[in-house]
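In the design runs reported in the main text, the only information available to the sequence generator was the tokenized backbone. The following block is the verbatim input for one such run; it is reproduced so that readers can re-run the procedure and compare outputs position by position.
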């Protein structure tokens, strides 16, 4: 953990920059909360990139949970149900985008787990092309093609176009 703490702090700061203004969670608190979840899980990591990927997923889950909680408070604890497409069309706040992105990634994971992992490592973990390719054991050229396909799939899902 000590070896990658600064990298996790950098990732958390990047996440926090994407969050809505007025966010009360600090990057350090996000790292610490993710660490507590990881320490409690007791799962072995194979290498640095594997650990960073799992930590990125944990931070994503924490931010999604917080965004959903804020959204539930705004919508009277979820009494009004709407579809994902309707929610995205009517969403003006950043709070709505993170849960929608998480749902789309969960669907992509069922269709193609490798593409979902690519998005997690590139977008959420902030890894570069070469680092992501090394973490997934593929060439950078192959990763670039699959990254483009994953982004197109995600765009289609989030925009509601067919």
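Verbatim output:
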């Amino acid at each position: 953990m000590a070896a990658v703490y600064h990298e996790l702090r950098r990732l958390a700061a990047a996440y926090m920059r994407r969050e809505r203004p007025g966010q009360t969670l600090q990057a350090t608190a996000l790292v610490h909360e993710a660490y507590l979840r990881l320490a409690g899980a007791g799962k072995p990591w194979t290498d640095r990139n594997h650990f960073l990927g799992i930590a990125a997923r944990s931070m994503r889950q924490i931010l999604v949970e917080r965004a959903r909680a804020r959204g539930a408070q705004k919508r009277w604890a979820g009494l009004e149900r709407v579809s994902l497409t309707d929610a995205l069309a009517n969403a003006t706040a950043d709070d709505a985008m993170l849960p929608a992105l998480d749902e789309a990634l969960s669907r992509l994971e069922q269709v193609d787990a490798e593409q979902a992992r690519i998005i997690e490592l590139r977008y959420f973990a902030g890894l570069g092309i070469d680092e992501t390719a090394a973490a997934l054991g593929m060439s950078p050229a192959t990763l670039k093609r699959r990254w483009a396909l994953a982004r197109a799939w995600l765009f289609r899902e989030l925009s509601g176009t067919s």
